[in-house]
Amino acid sequence: MMGDESLEPKRALDVTRRQFLGAAVASGAALLVGKSDVIFGADSSTTSKMASNPTFTLGGDLTVNRLGFGAMRITGERIWGWPPDRQNALKVLRRAVELGVNLIDTADAYGPDTSELLIAEALYRYPKGLVVATKGGLTRPGPGQWVPNCRPEHLKQALEGSLKRLRLERIDLYQLHTVDRKVPLEQSLGALKEMQDAGKIRHVGLSNVSTDEIVRARKVLPIVSVQNEYNIEDRKSERVLVYCEKENIGFLPWFPIGGGRGLKPENPLNAAAKAHGVSVVQVALAWLLERSPVMLPIPGTSSVPHLEENIAAAKLKLTPEEWKAIDALAG
Ligand SMILES: NC(=O)c1ccc[n+]([C@@H]2O[C@H](COP(=O)([O-])OP(=O)(O)OC[C@H]3O[C@@H](n4cnc5c(N)ncnc54)[C@H](OP(=O)(O)O)[C@@H]3O)[C@@H](O)[C@H]2O)c1
Fold first, then answer.
1. Whose Cα sits closest to atom 8 in ligand 1?
2. What is the pTM of this model?
3. Which of 17, 82, 128, 268 is the most buried (most CB within 10 A)?
């Protein structure tokens, strides 16, 4: 269906899209983790508009540090197969947990299967409190191909596969990866509700949805999270985010730092990065965290140094002026 390696299916959402313009990101990692590896729960001085809660509770009982990890990039090229350096992928996952990450996002479609298998290989028996959030509803006939299949039978099979690969009896957060135009949303979610009633899913989330679809979904079962594309340059899901904030639903922005194309280091981003001696990527993540108390960014990387740089961004506090200047970049 879709061609680009890092682009899962895009669906028409709420607000206009701003163009991505380049791949450059500034370097610098002055916030790299120091003596204590666990960097969450830092201070919370900020203005009323800037979110400062270090944690968020999904579905009333799963409290996670707000900066998570996206495990799509630990697979092979074009999100296909095994990574070229499997030991490195395992290191990235273990380092994420050492640094305090307790929300890892994955999907059966990543690899397919290999992202979930690597997570289990690196982290099983999982540390207490670690939430592995996976997804079903997208199939991978080949590299670069992402084909929706949200038929109830397929979703049930997909869930069983994820349980097996992750070596779990229950998935804490199972997300419907997309809405399949060929299958009524209610039917897809009906299957997930059955699996939830059977004790195989703790909480259900959605991905790549509009606000109308979230409203429809909530008539079938409780929805605790939504995962849509969102970053400084692409805020077409702004209305979805506002809805999630109002309803206290977790919002996991994918491509939080622009995906494989990166973010254009526009003036306010660069200025803030220079002022704090950090990278543009770190500023972008800090801005997201401050954008909403329900924001749960899941930056993806295959590199331990990048991971350390990204997670350290949870400590960065932008000034209200910097925050506003970056906010104004919305197209
Ligand atoms: N639901 C959906 O439809 C959907 C779609 C896409 C993604 N996702 C999820 O969202 C997560 C995040 O999205 P993403 O991984 O595609 O995009 P992203 O987090 O915005 O960006 C990842 C890209 O940025 C690079 N990168 C990461 N940290 C960096 C740093 N500090 N400096 C420079 N480059 C850096 C990575 O390359 P290196 O490996 O070289 O660091 C990779 O190419 C995924 O892992 C996946 O779990 C969901």
1. 254
2. 0.90
3. 268
